[in-house]
Amino acid sequence: MDKTKLIKIILFLGILILLSTFLINIYNNNFVLEDYNNSQGIKKIFQFGSGNNKNDEELSIFLIPHSHCDSGWLQNYDEYYYNIVQYILSGVINELYLDKEKKFNWVEIGFFSRWWNDQNEEKREIVRNLIKNKQLVFISGGWVQNDEATPTVDDVITQMTQGHHWLKDTLNYTIEYAWQIDPFGYSSSTPTIFSSMGIKGLVINRVSNDVKSYMKSVKEMEFIWKGSESLGERSQMLVSTLNIHYDYPKFIDPKLDFTLDERVEQFVKYIKELAKTRESKILMVPLGDDFRYSNAKKEFSISKEWLKVIQDNKQRHGIKEIRYATLDEFFIALEDDFLNRLGKGKKENSNTLSLYDKDFFPYSTGYLEYWTGYYTTRPLLKRLIRESSHLQKSSDILYTLAMAENSNNPTNIYNLNKLSNDLNENRNTISLVQHHDIVTGTSRSFVLNDNFQRLQKSRISNYNIISNSLEFLLNNSRYNNNNNNNNNDNNNNNNNNNNNNNNNKNNNNNNPTEPFNFENVIDLSNRSYNQYSLIFHNTLGWEIKQHISFRIRVDKNENQLLKSLQFVEAISDEEIQIQIIPIQDDSGCQSIENNYVVFAIVNLPPLGLNTFYLRINNNKQASNIILSKPKLLDNGDDINFNNNKFKVEFKSNGLINKVTDKDSNEIKSIEQKFHQYTTKKSGPYIFNIKGGKKLNILNSPDKIIFYDGPLVSQLTMLYGVEDGCNVDSIVVQRIYKNNDEKYGGPLITENFIETGYSINGDMNRETTINYKVKDLENNGIFYTDNGLESRKRIYNDDRTVNENYYPVLHYIKLKEMSENKNHQYTVYVDRSVGATSPSDGEMEIMIHRTMNTDDWKGVAWPSKDTGRTDGKLYFNMDSVNNQLQNEKRLSLYITNPPIMFVKKQNIQNMANEDYLLKYSPLSNQLPSNIHLQSLLTLKNENVGLRLFNIHEDDSTTDTEQSSLFNKLCTTNFIETGLNFLGLTKNYIIDKYSTRINKDFPVKSGESEYSFINDDPYPISFSINGTNIDQYKTETKTDTIKIKPLEIKSFTFNLYSNNLVKPNLELNNQYVEQSIENDRYEYDFSFYPIRPTFYEDRGRFIRPSKLPMILSLSIGIPSFVIIVLIALVIYYKKRKNGKTIKFQPFLSIGEEELKVM
Predict the structure, then answer these.
(1) Distance from the Cα of residue 495 to its chain's centroid
(2) Cα 864 vs. chain centroid, distance in angstroms?
(3) Which helix or strand (DSSP H or E) is residue 919 part of?
(4) What pLDDT shows up at residue 96?
(5) HSE of 1063 in the Cβ direction (CA atoms, 13 Å)?
């Protein structure tokens, strides 16, 4: 072989080696075009065209000192405070006190309030003066910096309100600007919520890298964000986007070692590049990062050095001013600049501000780095947060009503006030877990466990508050000695003054009674009691007629007791039909062997209470009870369910196959499946399917058990059954039925097909449930909700499925697109999840995820969530028009189920107790499109009320002119902002000239409907003749007007003019931790709630990829060399005229080698 050929072969071999090495490193993500690090930001420096030449313009530079203090992430809340936050605040306050030029911006009020409580009066006075001097400002003002994809709107409002009220009550401080710089993407609900709280400007940061690059190139880093088409300008606010991250620019970071000249030179270059990305010459530079200023003296001293040099040479660098600043000062200057140059009527300037009307999901930091996993991460914690928030709402309502009903008894008010601190602390706990690394599940496991325990503690506290509130609210003995026969004045008009004096006989207050208890399982084995009063609380402002369920337990040998049970509505003494289903079949090995679910239909007044008796009547067999016995089904058995709304046909494996909508006679094939993505590169934040597969699971149950009766039809599928006992996974299919004409048409619970599931977290698996509607062409368009309204999503076929996931708070839906079809298919969820529509007619919802790898986005530990999660999904099929009216209302019924408390009694001693049996504070239920979102007691016993018009379409408004409250008096009724503070309007927004950039790279997330131009007729009803003070003007009105999708808030005094209640004492003795430790999540659950947390303090050792890299780096080149050697041998033998049989290189024998 000549030298030329040899050189060519070597060169070719070298190219192959380099190419193979490059591909190997790409596979292992060693080459990343845009590397995003939590502490250092994006390392790539973007370069753009110069655009307008701003180098000659004078720049105003506002330096924003700040410290981003997570309320739980790598350490828990207490550890962060004691280890670092208290020192940050003390050091910063001291530096500001010593130097009036220094300023600071603080966000997390939870931490600040804790620090404040530790300070003496001298230090507090210093803080007050710093605020007065505008050296210390608060921005956002929430208890924490909340996530934006996973919390409900109610919870975001709560955590913001808690912080704002602490500031107002303690420091008389009002928030005007917000700083949401660390959530992983941004919801369209944010500008709506914040603007309704009087916030005028917002800073954001975590916008996808490609989107932010585009925004820089077209100078749209500042824009007007419109949260809702229907709300229009009422949902708009000015937004400024950080250029890279919220940390120091690299060369001025005090932690990094640069000379003074280097800092100055590089900072000036940075400013020039920053100016190229903005329309305005008003620039903001963050000076801070995670938990910075623990040594405030050092950080300020270093920044003052380079700052003074630049200030002394301003003109040389084209700088008008540069100084420490507050966010308020930056926005005021920015607003003035925009109004001067871009305001309406400025004909000489054709420039306008961009108007953005979508959201910023999903968030991406580069190739294969889509932050869509955290939508589902830690599903058990997400569920606990959701239901704890609902319990908090019940506690707030009942406490408020108890205070109002006892307002004329100072002793009772004094006793109830003892609960107010606990109530507020429980709100703080709900606020704390909205932090963007708690509700997301993206903290260390021990941190999440700390928050799990906080939630359990708050739940137990709320059980106690509800128990006492019920006692103070329903105790009716005040009427007995006053010859007051119409003692139903406090009952809903549905009560019809219906002999409430059934219990008003021979009252003896000296005879103690059992308290109202939270009972997850009613234990009937204690034969000391033969009656249980079940009090159901309806937290909604509408009357409820629906199915409810509760669990009971009996002794192993007393199953016959079930036949003697009676369920009776107390006010009418009417026996209610019940159906009883055993939790499990007859295998007899579960700890729940003698556990049963009782189903019934109840009628609850709006925002009110109704009492039902569960009686053990041994004298006769109850006639209104159905005991559903389990029936084991074989493969191939036909399985059909029917109720007033649907006919449901199931496959032989128990999964949904076909659904008939009886209203329209529409028959649809619905394929229901469970899948798992095998995970190799996912982590707590990121969902990444690269290198994985999609597997079909839960396709062949070991057992299918069928239960039927007049109220419920149910299939229970058991998977992984060992010896007829331990069950790995459970799926429960259920529809609710009603044949009783007294309840009218289909009940709210008949409008969905319920699928329950109980699954473990399988390692390196991400589990989904999929619904596929046959022959539905949605063309990649689907809809998810943001808590306020539906948002349009578009599946991008150029991206993988994980890159097309979006957050779902309450539902995902598909709509038929053809003209002759008008059906909508909706799946409601019970917690925040991630979802998408990967093919025509398909909805995919992720319900669990577990991995043994980290995604290296900061938490630095895998999310090894192998625990069991029990959940429910609700499938609805209806016309688009019907769902336009009902989808939000149905969602609220699902997420706000009645809450049950139990009082144990004996029938023969009933005369010793005297309670209101049915109660509602409202005169009538609210109009169908008005949701009572909040009713709670504020400081100084003021009451806060929020009303939400949930309908996009108001054509079915059934408003009735009536008083809001029944027999309760209201005074000082004032309209407020969403945070129950002063009502303000952002007058600046409507002065900007705006444009819509149709080339903006985000195409998904706009409002599904817009009614802003339809001038909808407002909703109105009177308030007991009490005037409402609106916008603090002299204009008075006696109605509330709420437009579609608008939330209006009010404060007022609520009190009673009824007879004085007897003096009552608080009961604080009954609650035990075991109530929470042994609680079952759902009525079908086999196992109590058992989260899987583990100790993950310290550093996680990333599994080494070096062996694989070395093996591939050596193996591939070796393979190429051997192939080349074989080719050379073959070539030489051919050239020499020899004929040999060519064999693969693995078969080269000794003779062939000798030829070489």
Answers:
(1) 37
(2) 21
(3) strand 918-919
(4) 98
(5) 4
Element housing 386 (H / E): helix 379-405
> Cα dist. 662→224, 429, 893 in Å?
46, 45, 22
Q: What is the C-alpha to C-alpha distance for residues 128 and 879, in angstroms, rounded to an integer?
A: 58
Q: Look at residue 1086 and give its three-state secondary structure.
A: coil
Query: Which tokens belong to 381?
Result: 């914690």
Closest CA to 82 of 111, 109, 116, 107: 111
Three-state DSSP class for 132? Answer: helix
Structure tokens that stand for 346 in this block: 């400025």
Integer Cα distance of 739 and 807 in angstroms: 38
Residue with tokens 């704002």: 164
Q: Give the number of residues written for the chain.
A: 1156
Q: CA 1081, 374, 86 angle in degrees (round to 5)?
A: 95
E-assigned strand segments in 692-816: 694-697, 703-707, 712-719, 729-736, 753-760, 765-773, 781-785, 790-794, 806-808, 811-815
Q: Across the 1156 residues of the chain, what is the mean pLDDT of every consecutive 10-residue run?
A: 63 63 48 36 30 60 98 98 98 98 98 98 98 98 98 98 98 98 98 96 98 97 96 93 96 96 96 95 98 97 97 94 98 92 59 91 96 98 98 98 96 96 98 98 97 96 96 76 38 39 36 80 85 96 97 84 93 96 72 87 97 87 85 85 96 96 94 95 95 94 95 96 81 96 89 97 97 94 97 96 98 88 95 98 98 93 94 96 92 98 76 79 90 94 94 48 76 94 77 88 94 54 49 46 91 89 82 82 94 83 64 76 79 65 44 37
**pTM flag (> 0.85):** yes
Which residue type is seen at 804?
A: N
**CA separation for the pair 146, 434 (Å, rounded):** 5
Residue 639 to residue 661: CA distance in whole angstroms: 17
Closest to 529 (Cα-Cα) out of 540, 517, 537, 520: 517
Residues 103, 326: contact at Cβ < 8 Å?
yes
Estimate to the nearest angstrom the gap between the alpha carbon of 674 and the chain centroid: 23
C-alpha Rg value of the chain to the nearest Å? 33
Q: Which of 154, 182, 359, 785 is the catalytic position?
A: 182
Q: Contact, 151 vs 186, CB < 8 A?
A: no
137 with 64: CB under 8 angstroms? Answer: no
Q: Is 954 left (phi over 0), alpha (psi -120 to 50) or beta?
A: alpha
pLDDT of 609 reads 98
Burial class (CB in 10 A: 0-12, 13-18, 19+), 1065: exposed
Give dist(CA 518, CA 744) in Å, integer.
Answer: 31
**Known catalytic residue at 182:** yes
Torsion sign, CA atoms 367, 368, 374, 375: positive
Q: Using CA atoms, how far apart are residues 989 and 1106, in angstroms rounded to an integer?
A: 56
Interstrand relation of 574-575 and 565-569 (parallel, antiparallel or unpaired)? antiparallel
| Rounded CA separation 598/616 (Å) | 14
Q: Is 1032 helix (H, G, I), strand (E, B) or coil?
A: coil
In this structure, what DSSP letter does residue 374 have?
Answer: T
Report how far residue 522's alpha carbon sits from residue 513's, in angstroms, rounded to the nearest whole number.
18
Residues 891, 673: contact at Cβ < 8 Å? no
Query: Which residues contact residue 667 at a Cβ distance below 8 angstroms, ignoring those fewer than 6 apart?
Result: 658, 659, 660, 661
Query: How far, in Å, CA of 775 to CA of 145, rounded?
Result: 44
> Which amino acid is present at 1048?
K
Residue 362: asked if its preceding bond is cis (omega within 30°), the reply is yes
Q: What's the rounded Cα separation, in Å, for the pair 753 and 733?
A: 7
Q: Which of 204, 256, 248 is nearest to 361 (CA)?
A: 204
Q: How far apart are CA 613 and CA 532, in angstroms?
A: 6
Shortest CA distance to 191 belongs to which of 223, 156, 222, 226?
226
Backbone angles phi, psi at 157, to 5 degrees: -60, -40
